[in-house]
Amino acid sequence: MASSSSSSALSRISSLQNHLSPLEANNKLMSLIKISPEVSEAISNGRAVVALESTIISHGMPYPQNLQTAKEVESIVRDNGAIPATIAILNGVPCIGLNEEELERLASLGKSVQKTAGRDIAHVVATRANGATTVSATLFFASMVGIQVFVTGGIGGVHRHANHTMDISSDLTALGRTPIAVISAGVKSILDIPKTLEYLETQEVYVAAYKSDEFPAFFTEKSGCKAPSRVNSPEDCARVIGKYANMKLNRPAGILFAVPIPKQHSAAGNLIESATQRALAEAREQNVTGSAETPFLLARVNELTGGTSLAASILSLEHCLSIVNLEFLDTVSDIALVKNNALIGSQIAVALSQLIF
Ligand code: PSU
Ligand code: MN
User: Fold this and answer.
1) Using a 6 Å cutoff on CB, does residue 117 contact ligand 1?
2) Taking a C-beta distance cutoff of 8 angstroms, is the pair 245, 148 a contact?
3) For the chain, which terminal residue's Cβ has fewer other Cβ atoms within 10 angstroms, N or C?
4) For residue 176, with 0-12 CB atoms within 10 Å meaning exposed, 13-18 middle and 19 or more buried, which class applies?
5) Max intra-chain CA distance, the chain
6) Which atom of ligand 1 is nearest to the CA of 218?
7) Atom 2, ligand 1: which residue's CA is nearest?
8) Helix 326-354 vs helix 293-304: angle between axes, to the nearest 10 degrees?
């Protein structure tokens, strides 16, 4: 009985879909999402648009610092001639471009908003919940409306010990099937960078380091891994996006432009990185594994970087906050990195909008 009623429901749905023209089907899809007037106008007129994820806002730092950073990142995008499109799900509605009230709501809800990767979209929409989109979910919505450039701090990757845990971020598979260029500072060195690069190759993602021969390691300029390719300017990037990912070739695969940490932030970056490496080595020596590993690493890096000299160097780096813990240290550099990526990503989006194909 149950199976016959569910199969008739299925056939009703498929007959409904079969009776829609492509235009009607597209309109139906578009009616499920909300695009801000500004982003909609920019897309229609071929202006530069930069997609921004929202997990970094909800989970990356506390309120109100997250709101301030999100606004600053949007300002950087505007100051460089592009329109920002922050993407999140609010009360079950995927929103492309948030107004001030929506950004405030998302930021103040903080971690109570569900971290939403691609797999979680359906559930968040179905339950009319609030969802902060990770790179994989943001890619999905950005590509639905034809945005070609997306800026973030760092993408997810292949975790260390992935050969045992299978923990590989869906950011990588989403990039493999979505024709969008992501600008990030690489992946955190707490991940396995060589394996992440291998996996991106498997997914047919074009990976280039920006003005560098080496793939960056988030907090440091160098990871010890040669970048598969190198680009030297926003125009270089725009040409690759245009030739490689646009409709001309109809090639549905993504691009990762990895931008090294700016020189003025690399001192703080090096301190965080060396503490992380030492904590990782200690975890191995003490055989700390599984679910105990992350809390151990966080606590140890916190201790290792908690001295006053580091606090001073970090505080002079970014004039803020009073507590010294990993989240804070992480956040300071994250902010510096996402801002730098926003600057370069906007230049790439503008160069792309000016390119004659
Ligand atoms: N890496 C960072 N900062 C972040 C993230 C990754 O340095 O905020 C977030 C991004 O939203 C990314 C997600 O898409 O975490 C990846 O999560 P997971 O490893 O669970 O796939
Ligand atoms: Mn994971």
Assistant:
1) yes
2) yes
3) N
4) middle
5) 71
6) 7
7) 154
8) 100
Q: What is the pLDDT of residues 311-343, one digit of tens each?
A: 434 433 332 222 333 444 555 567 888 999 999
Confidence band of 210 (pLDDT split at 50, 70, 90): very high
Which residue has its alpha carbon closest to ligand 1 atom 8? 56
- Summarize pLDDT for 265-290 with one digit per residue, the tens: 777 778 778 888 898 899 999 999 87
Report the predicted TM-score, pTM, of the whole model to 2 decimal places.
0.87
Strands 83-90 and 49-52 come out as parallel
Residue-by-residue DSSP string for 219-230: TBS--SSB-S-E
Pocket test for ligand 1, best of 52, 54, 56, 327 (most atoms within 8 A of CB): 56
53 assigned to active site: yes
Lowest mean pLDDT among 92-101, 286-295, 296-305: 296-305
Residues, CB within 5 angstroms of ligand 2 (ion): 167
Please work out whether the CB of residue 188 comes within 6 Å of at least one atom of ligand 1.
Answer: yes
State ipTM.
0.97
Distance (Å, rounded) from C-alpha 172 to C-alpha 130? 24
What tokens appear for 124 in the block? 């968040």
Tell me how long the chain is: 357
Contact 36, 85 (CB under 8 A): yes
Residue indicated by tokens 């396995």: 192
